[in-house]
Design goal:
The complex is a heterotrimer of chains A (about 200), B (about 550) and C (about 325).
Chain A lengths: L10 H4 L5 H26 L10 H4 L4 H22 L3 H33 L7 H32 L8 H28 L2
Chain B lengths: L9 H18 L3 H29 L10 H35 L8 H24 L30 H29 L12 H32 L13 H35 L6 H14 L15 H13 L1 H15 L8 H24 L1 H7 L3 H31 L5 H27 L16 H31 L37 H6 L10
Chain C lengths: L1 H4 L12 H34 L18 H30 L8 E8 L2 E6 L4 E4 L1 E5 L9 E7 L4 E3 L8 E3 L5 E5 L5 E6 L12 E7 L1 H12 L9 H9 L2 H4 L23 E2 L4 E2 L2 H9 L17 H11 L4
Helix pairs in contact in C: 2-3, 5-8, 7-8
Classes of the chains: A mainly alpha (about 200), B mainly alpha (about 550), C alpha+beta (about 325).
Chain lengths: ~200, ~550, ~325
């Protein structure tokens, strides 16, 4: 087994590499962004091309309150991880749970909107091009919110069991990257669907 | 392992050894074992897809042949293409990447070993799903059908109206599942390369293989995902009444084409970039010189990665895009030839002034250079859109892409097998059988794929289960078929070599080729932990520095 | 020249129409450039392999370890870029000339509709509907009379490819396309569908008959007539009208006005049936009606399951549709 001669005696200790978790999450975010981009492109491409059925202008109502909920959850999760870094476990748990509540509110809001669209306006995924692209895009986002909430819930349970100490803060940070991504996607979807699309 | 283990009577051990071995392999998270699993899996599917190719070639041997029905033929070309790309080439490349990248950067394993295992098993499941379609494609009551929509699965042929039953769904689901596996491997490779390099190995000192796998993995992240997105849309159309590609509702068949080729074109760069990586490691060693122009090779590969995202619609020149769009995709498709050509010149420059050894890996590498040059030139021909209005959808295209994939990628893969098999198994592959393999395959390859350009020029479209006599295609197709069988025999020689050399091959030792990268510093095969102590490097060729302390690379970099 | 080396009726090196000619001219230019590159680079490869091989006795000496050269890298970056610029300029001109060509007022308009697995041709200004075999007038280069095809699809994607007349263009549902040609020689030109469209993609053949002005005019006149009605074939006509035939087929002047299958008004004016899958003979016609799978398995023509008398009657009737 050969060992390299070390030209710089303390090279090993001065050697700094990025964190695996952050790089991997960045990779996942890039991949997911590509998926969302395709759905956004389809949405934009088909604007105005539905042959029949309700149009965005006729049926969409801008979900301002629930958007504020989701976007503020980015703030709460940010401060939560900072709290964990500073070893303030209870503050962390409180802010983390608040994040979950805000995210759940957003999902509830999406559900309400879909209920209204389906039962009051007869818009489903098979109604027309708008229905197909709208439910797919917003649904894909809601799916990612749900997956995020499940992960946040697991961390909450670990915290309640006393297992989320300050040494775990980096992992919480990686998870919060995902949550910020989900919020950023909503900013794009919101702009495309409720601002540009009408 | 405990040194106090009690001696177990031999009889009791034997009965349990094979189960233990199987269990070890099934639950492994070691990058080397997973690499070998990927490679073995791909070899199995290479044989299956090869048989599918031979069925195609027998049917096309002469006009109005009746070897198989049109339905079976259409399934054969769909499965051959889908299998070769997703369950042969991608797994074997991920296999080599898995095995080599950690070793070459001085790491003990990939960044996420369990994710690595998960990715492999997802890919494996995808392959099984695809082939289960032969049984389950029409639902379990019937005989079942494999997908027959071509590997691009163009809309609206894949709509429920035109593809009833579940054969298209097997295509979709198999690729969705294995696609997620590929994305996870891409993430893993990026994290490994960026976060696990040994001290001293700055990015500018990484072996080119590590660089190229980094670029390839980045491409995987933004390339496979558009296909996944389009496949989700297809499932929504087929099962939830969606209209993404439904012409009756105003949907667009062309949109599927755009989404598919936004995946499909960068995908072929995902396939070739690792082949470039193998060449960049092997050609220098057998020319006894460092790679010519390392920084340019890195820059050219990154450039290829970026430009490859802008050329996709050269697969759609006949679709009726505007003259401006066609001109745009013409120029980008020509521009990508520049960095690609630069790489060919740099390999030539590596050989120039060297001392070339014609061992089997180098024979295949020289074959690669010659054939990849030709493939690139027929690519330029198709990049000129008007010429492509004749060449597209004909056997000229089939000849071109097989020239790249077989003449380029497969040759580079064979070189990689002969080069790294000693490291993986501790035995050399037989040079004699290697030369038989090379020459048989070379002759068969050229007989098939040189000739195949001609029917395309004479008007033969692709994906036809038979053709009319009197078009002038008969003799040419017969020659092509003969070449295919020659290649098949060569592959059997190769498989025999792999198998026999495992037991009878000459022992390899750590460094049979007198090479310069870190994997040759450890045993063959390497121990589970790779390196007894993590190496520290000062140049791109750490073993050259060791062997030539009077003239180390670190002095010049 | 190259056209004669490999004898084929679908040879892209034997153009007979302006688009095919322009494509060939550009192709030869591209071929010349790529051939030159090939000769130079593979020559260098061959030279390197021979000159720099390991000589006996020199196995242990490592050659000079050269890492690169900025000048050489610059040279072999600039030269390819220049080649690309030249190629692109030549190509862009041809793209524009062929795709953006304005339609002259005297051009013949044809609408081509792709079906699984046959071609529908409509001549809107002439009131003609036919199938699979296209008749167009020859075009004198001095006074061109091109044919402009509008390409539509009734189901999946198809592609119209007659190599000696033009490059191919796809027929895509909900996405009309345009193709033009001006054949300079009379004769029959062959081609077939080039975009995989389903099981019988291979048998969706094309036959383009380029006619002299007189022959074309007489063909047009014949096609514009309603169907012949011959009293001797009345029995067959009754079978035709009372069986499912009329659901799919049209025979102008009768109650048959289905549009799912080819128009049969002038079936006997065609040399082939089933889009080129068989010669147009009474025996083949009989076989096609009774057992289409023996000619073109899984085409959308159903087996009609007629009794022998009915079958004979219908075939006799078909034989009167000149």
């Amino acid at each position: 087994m050969s060992v390299m001669t070390t030209p710089f005696p303390d090279a090993a200790s001065a050697w700094k590499l990025p964190s695996r978790g952050k790089v991997a999450m960045a990779g996942l975010i890039i991949a997911e962004s590509a998926i969302f981009t395709i759905f956004v492109v389809a949405y934009l491409f088909y604007l105005g091309k539905s042959i029949t059925g309700p149009t965005p202008r006729e049926v969409l109502e801008t979900p301002v309150f629930y958007t504020i909920c989701l976007l503020s959850s980015s703030l709460t999760i940010h401060f939560a991880t900072k709290a964990l870094e500073g070893n303030r476990g209870r503050l962390f748990l409180g802010l983390w749970l608040l994040t979950i509540v805000l995210g759940s509110l957003f999902l509830y809001g999406t559900g309400q909107e879909w209920r209204r669209l389906i039962y009051q306006h007869g818009l489903t995924i098979s109604t027309n091009l708008f229905g197909t692209t709208y439910y797919s895009l917003v649904g894909l986002h809601a799916f990612h919110v749900t997956a995020g909430l499940l992960m946040l819930l697991s961390v909450a349970m670990f915290s309640l069991a006393g297992r989320m100490g300050t040494e775990q803060y980096k992992r919480a940070e990686v998870l919060s990257m995902y949550w910020h991504f989900v919020d950023a996607v909503w900013v794009v979807v919101f702009t495309v669907v409720y601002v540009l699309g009408r | 392992m405990s040194t106090n283990a009690m001696t177990i009577p031999a009889g009791n051990i034997e009965g349990r050894v094979w189960v233990d071995t199987l269990h070890q392999w099934l639950t492994t998270v070691d990058h080397k074992r997973l690499g070998l699993l990927y490679i073995a899996y791909s070899l199995l599917f290479l044989l299956v897809a090869g048989v599918e190719a031979l069925v195609i070639r027998v049917q096309l041997m002469h006009s109005h042949n009746n070897f198989v029905s049109p339905q079976v033929f259409n399934r054969m070309f769909t499965m051959h293409g889908t299998t070769m790309i997703f369950f042969v080439i991608m797994p074997v490349l991920f296999g080599f990447g898995n095995y080599l990248v950690p070793l070459m950067i001085g790491a003990r394993d990939m960044a996420f070993p369990r994710l690595n295992a998960f990715s492999f098993w997802l890919t494996a499941l995808g392959g099984l799903l695809l082939y289960f379609s032969f049984l389950g494609g029409s639902g379990l009551y019937g005989a079942g059908n494999a997908p027959d929509v071509g590997w691009w699965a163009y809309a609206p042929l894949t709509a429920r109206a035109f593809s009833p039953g579940h054969s298209s769904d097997y295509w979709t689901l198999a690729l969705l599942v294995s696609g997620f596996g590929s994305i996870a491997t891409g993430i893993n490779i990026i994290a490994t390369v960026l976060c696990m390099r040994c001290p001293g190995m700055e990015l500018s000192r990484m072996p080119l293989l590590a660089w190229l796998y980094l670029v390839m993995s980045g491409l995987v992240l933004i390339t496979i995902t558009p296909l996944s997105a389009a496949q989700i849309m297809l499932l929504i159309d087929r099962y939830l009444g969606g209209h993404f590609f439904d012409a009756q509702a105003g949907g667009s068949a062309v949109l599927w084409m755009h989404f598919f080729w936004i995946f499909g074109h960068p995908e072929v760069y995902i396939l070739i970039i690792p082949a470039f990586a193998f060449m960049s490691e092997i050609v220098p060693v057998f020319s006894r010189k460092p790679i010519f122009g390392y920084p340019v090779m890195v820059a050219a590969t990154v450039a290829i990665g970026f430009v490859s995202m802008s050329v996709w619609a050269h697969h759609m020149f006949t679709v009726g895009m505007s003259s401006k769009s066609n001109s745009f995709f013409t120029i980008t498709s020509m521009v990508i030839a520049v960095p690609t050509g630069i790489k060919i010149f740099n390999w030539l420059g590596t050989m120039w002034g060297g001392r070339i050894q014609f061992k089997t890996p180098m024979l295949f590498s020289i074959g690669f250079l010659f054939q990849f040059l030709i493939a690139g030139l027929t690519g330029i021909m198709q990049a000129t859109a008007p010429f492509d209005w004749q060449l597209s959808l004909s056997y000229f295209v089939v000849a071109h892409f097989h020239y790249v994939i077989v003449g380029g990628i497969m040759f580079a893969l064979f070189a990689a097998f002969y080069y790294w098999y000693p490291k993986m198994t501790g035995r050399m592959l037989s040079e004699a059988l290697g030369k038989w393999h090379f020459w048989l395959f070379l002759v068969g390859f050229h007989l098939t794929f040189d000739v195949m350009h001609i029917p395309g020029l004479l008007g033969m479209p692709r994906r036809i289960y038979t053709y009319e006599p009197g078009r002038g295609w008969d003799t040419l197709n017969l020659l092509i078929t003969i070449g295919a069988f020659l290649q098949g025999i060569a592959i059997l020689v190769f498989v025999a070599n792999l198998f026999l050399s495992y037991f009878k091959g000459e022992k390899a030792g750590n460094d049979p080729w007198d090479a310069w990268t870190l994997e040759w510093a450890v045993g063959s095969p390497p121990p589970g932990y790779n390196f007894a102590s993590i190496p520290v490097v000062a140049s791109r060729r750490p073993l050259w520095d060791e062997k030539h302390p009077e003239d180390p690379d670190s002095r010049y970099e | 020249m190259v056209g004669q080396a490999f004898s084929s009726p679908t040879n892209i090196f034997a153009p007979m129409s302006t688009p095919a000619h322009s494509i060939l001219d550009l192709s030869l230019f591209v071929l010349a450039i790529t051939a030159t590159i090939f000769i130079v680079v593979s020559g260098l490869l061959l030279y390197a392999v021979v000159k720099f091989r390991t000589r006996a006795g020199a196995e242990d000496r490592e050659p000079a370890q050269v890492y690169g050269s900025t000048q050489i890298e610059t040279a072999w970056t600039i030269i390819p870029i220049l080649i690309v610029v030249v190629l692109f300029l030549a190509t862009a001109r041809v793209i524009h000339a062929l795709q953006d060509a304005p339609e002259p007022p005297n051009a013949l308009d044809v609408i081509a509709i792709g079906h699984q697995y046959w071609w529908e041709f409509r001549y809107p200004k002439l009131g003609i509907v036919t199938a699979n075999e296209l008749h167009i007038p020859v075009s004198d280069p001095a006074r061109p009379m091109p044919t402009f095809l509008q390409l539509l699809s009734a189901d999946t994607d198809h592609s119209f490819w007659v190599p000696e007349l033009a490059g191919k263009t796809d027929l895509i549902p909900n996405h009309p396309n345009r193709l033009w040609m001006d054949p300079q020689r009379t004769g029959v030109f062959l081609g077939q569908c080039a975009q995989y469209c389903g099981v019988q993609h291979a048998k969706m053949l094309l036959r383009v008959s380029v006619d002299s002005p007189d022959v074309f005019a007489s063909w047009v006149h014949d096609q514009q007539q309603p169907s012949f009605s011959d009293a001797r074939a009345a029995a067959g006509q009754r079978v035709f009208e009372q069986t499912a035939c009329i659901n799919c087929h049209t025979v102008a002047g009768t109650s048959a006005n289905g549009r799912f299958g080819p128009d049969l008004t002038h079936l006997l004016s065609r040399a082939t049936i089933a889009s080129g899958a068989a010669q147009n003979t009474p025996e083949n016609l009989r076989l096609w009606i009774q057992e289409p799978d023996s000619i073109k398995p899984a085409s959308l023509m159903p087996a009609m399951k007629l009794s022998d008398t009915d079958l004979d009657a219908v075939v006799s009737y078909m034989e009167t549709l000149r």
